[in-house]
Amino acid sequence: MAPAFHFHFISMHYPWWYVPVLTAPMLIAFIAVIHVFVSHYAVGGGILLALENQFAVKTGDKDYRDYLHRHARFFVLLTVAFGAITGVGIWWTIALTSPLATEMLIRTFVFGWAIEWVFFIIEVTAAFIMYYQWTRLPEKTHIIITWIYALAAWISLVLITGITAFMLDSRGLIADWSETGNFWHAFFNIQFLPQTVARTGGALLLAALYVLLHAAWTFRNNNGGLLEKTVRRMSKPLIAGIVMVFAGVAWSFSLLPDATLLNIERTVFLTILFTLFAGLSVLVTLMIVFGPIFNPKSVNVGFAVSIFILSLTALSVAEFSREAVRKPWIVDRIVLGNQIYASEVTERQKTGFLTDTYFTKLPKDKLQLGGMVFMYHCNNCHAPDRGLSPAGLLVYGESKEKVKDKIRSLNVPVSSMPPWCGTENELDALADYLLSLRKI
How far is CA 402 from CA 171, 181, 320, 391, 399, in A? Predict the structure, then answer.
């Protein structure tokens, strides 16, 4: 079902966006995870192309360098073309789903995003020169171009990591951003360094697996030992990537606030996700050790496809877990999941979550008012009656007073939910609306 667009201007900062069944945040997650698959390859692949191109030139290995040229075509098509489309898709969905958080991030990091765009332009320009001038430029000049691309791509990763890590934990390495509002205090947040290590390692690991997959398919008959040589060359970045991922994830986990750790321990779903990530990571590591590292001749298309899919699954679980850890925040300690600032909660509990404005009058019908409260307060995580985490099922078998009691203390039993931010009248209307969603 295509997303439905409903916009209402009430006392909120921005209107809500309703995506049936899937819910808007899951639409973000779907596009973002696909983009991560490609963007990490863009970074790690750039580093590997630079290293391997330099190696091939230094050793005079024309056949291997010709293969790298073939791989560069696949690399540019996937990272530049598809990567750019999914990158724009992320901006489109976050602007509709989390406009307040997007505004806050732009205000805070506009300087950082400006720098990132400069390096993105350098990255794209260098990528096209690297591929289209592969056989025309002098070899030493071409090596410089590949390193320019690799460095620009990695700096883009570093800049974006600073911003996404801030969303996870707004505490700064230098000073608390909530007290200063300083760009550098926000960028150098407490999660910046471990996240950068983990993502750089993930980029190297994922890129090496892309190369294995492409080489295994290209040299299905081994083509004079080129497949085995490529597998052996990828062993080092695979090892480096694994070590950096494990070190970065462990470091990041050790810095999580006590409240977040408690939330993980209390939430069965998060425990399952972390266990699944650990299991997949160990499995991929064993496959790498007993495949490319100790037995490179065993790598074929089936092996390359299997380890590639398992790695993408592990990365998907890691990204989903990271986002789940942030709840109820969109931006840690600043923007809540119901699209208001944390500092506004007390005032809205007194004056009302919604109020009449020049643009729209609050409906007189109680169920309609409750539905409007739901869309602003709950829609960012819950579908109404069917779809992901449907609210109608959550109140099954409950009395109205029991539902109201649960809403009053939303964040007490389940710390991943924001506090109730409305008045008693809005609470009563929301309870009626939720009860109307029940099938029985």
Answer: 37, 41, 32, 14, 5
Give the DSSP H or E segment for 336.
Answer: strand 335-336
What gap in Å lies between CA 77 and CA 83, rounded to an integer? Answer: 9
Give the DSSP letter of residue 172.
Answer: B
- Taking the chain (440 residues) in runs of 10, the rounded mean pLDDT of each run is 38 77 86 93 97 97 95 94 88 90 93 94 96 96 98 96 94 89 94 97 97 93 81 95 96 89 80 92 96 92 95 93 86 91 92 71 89 91 86 88 93 84 95 87
Minimal CA–CA distance to 162: which of 134, 130, 194? Answer: 194
Residue entry with tokens 């406009």: 99
Q: Tokens in use for 24?
A: 């808007």
Beta bridge partners of 172: 189
- C-beta separation of 430 from 370 below 8 A: yes
Q: By C-alpha distance, which of 152, 156, 254, 146 is closest to 196? A: 156
SS3 189: strand
DSSP-assigned letters across all residues of 307-333? HHHHHHHHHHHHHHHHHHHHTTEEETT
**Residue 171 tokens, joined:** 């505490």
